Input
Amino acid sequence: MAFTFFFRDLQVLEQVVERSLPIIAGRSHPRIWDAGAATGQEAYTLSILFAEKMGHFAFGNLRIDATDVEPTGQFAQIVQAGLYPAAELSRLPDGILEKYFEPDAESGQRRAAEKLRRRITFQHHDLLSLQEIGQGYSVVLCKNVLLHFQPAERIEVLRMFHRALAPGGLLATEQTQEMPVELAPLFERVSPDGPVFQKRGGNQ
Output
């Protein structure tokens, strides 16, 4: 069962946004891969954080590809609808609820604003397929997922993320995740107090 909530691990997400803005600024259609997105709270949190930092035009060119292994399509429906119970949104930072979520009379829930929903797409993807969903990503975010994999699987998934990233792109993982020593040539840690890494070199 997926477990996630809005603005989870906010310190890490804020670091990702701040460090990625100079990278994104040089791209006409920057893309972010949120791997293991579950029901979308993390992807929408990212979208909100970028919306707060980017101008309207630049934010309109951003795309967040949210993926998860869930096979029934339930997660996709939730993410694409952007509908969440009001109680789940009750602890959002001041001003965020009113600015980015509107009441939905039919469901009794709140719907993420259209400008957020338009930035996020969802697709089914199994990380252990070791096939990246694309290349040239400015950011790959994979939090609270890698800890469920065996060490050898973890290494291969991280190699896949390296291939998916653009030169100088950022990878963010869970707080407990250390970069395996085998991958030291591929990633450089860029945050002393957070699991944020920058891609080194070309694809390997």
